[in-house]
Structures are given as structure tokens and as C-alpha cells.
């Protein structure tokens, strides 16, 4: 599993010219991360949105292996309708395949096209970075939406599902099951990505408590908290469906992570509201 990129040290030599320049040379090693604040840390940069709702989101550099989208295929996946312009099944994640959150029970988003699928399967695994061993945290299936759109599932906060641990990596996947008689991996279309819960800086936490839900969008974007950001915008869009500024914000966020082909797709229901269908915890 890829490890976090290590930083680099830039040594600035101030010898005889030290007294002349007062060591005013810029620290070049900080330039690369000037727009990439540490998650959960205050960011002094002005990230105000314009009247169109555009918000700049800071995506952490770290990337992990994954498959956030798949195109149309033939064979067992014949229950899916797709086009060459729009991927068949897509997780709403940055190209790095990793999204950050402060939530113990985050909300996950994905896109499915028009389909006749038998079931959709959602899985969440805790992954040990050293041994690469995974442990099942949550696994469920449900009847999918037939119409094309963006669906979501909020991890249920009950005694059977532990909260996400801070700084722990989790891999999540969504699979489309076309054939009810065959639920083996070869007969399913699957996409997968990663989520990591991070600790939030106390100053940022205090700020979030004092501002409106709408203003939190800017804070989440500055801090690179992808899951918190999407969930907040989605909630506001559901509450205010005629607000074009919120729609523009949503489209802008997805466009920034190269998901512009599905940015205009409608938001469908949160599957937490539906009755799950138990399945065996095999991977």
C-alpha cells in the first residue's frame, strides 16, 4: 500500500550575507503546499466563494490504489445502461481515491446509470497499512434505484457498527449485482476507494459551531474534508432544491475532481432510509 509522501528539506545558507539580507530569503520548500493545508488545521488563505457558488477545494496530495469508476461492459453486467460519455458506476471521490472526514459515521456517495440490477452491495473494511490485512466493518445490500442519479448511504450509528477510528484507513466499495443466482466477484461490477477520519483542530471546531451550515462549506473545502463537504452541500440542496447557487457549488466541486460528466445528475435517496438486505460477509 502506498505510504504518505515524505516532505523535503530546503536548506538556506545565510553566512556572510546574513547581516545584509537579514535572512529575508523565502523558504522555497513551503511553496508546494501553500494551497494544501494540513487537514483540521486553520487556513488563513481567503477561500471565499463568488456569486456563482464556486468553491475551491483543497485535495491532499496523498493517493491510494483504487478504482473509483468503471465504463460500460458486456457479459454478466447486462443490467446496466451506459454511454461512452458517462461512466457506468462511479464513486464520488477525488482522483487520489482518498477522501477525508471528521465524521465517525460518514455519508458515502456514488453514481449509477439507468439499470435493472438485482441488488447493490456496499462494503466497508478497516485496513492495516503495515500488514494490508482488512477487517470487515459493515456490509449490506439493498434494492437499487432504477433511474440514473447519485445515491448515498450514511454509515449507521448503532451498536453493531463501530465509529471510524481517527487516522485509520478504510476501504469502501459499491458493487452492482445483476444476476441473483451468481454473486461471485466475476459477475459483479465493483468500484472501490478509501476514507480516512482525521482529528479536527479545536479552533476549526469552534468556528464550525459558530457559523451556519452554508458557511461551513468554505471551511470544509479549505481543510480538504471531502466527505463533510459533499454531505453538507447535498443536505442543503435537498432542503433548498431551487437554489441555483448550491447547484453550482455542487457542480464546481465535482468538476474540480474530474467528475464533470455526472455533476448534473440528480440526487437520489440516502439508503440509510431503506431496509437493508443481509448478505454473507465474504469479500
Automatic annotation (TrEMBL):
Residues 1-29 form the signal peptide. It comes from Mojavia pulchra JT2-VF2. This is DUF928 domain-containing protein. InterPro entries: DUF928. Residues 32-79 are annotated as: Disordered. Keywords: Signal.
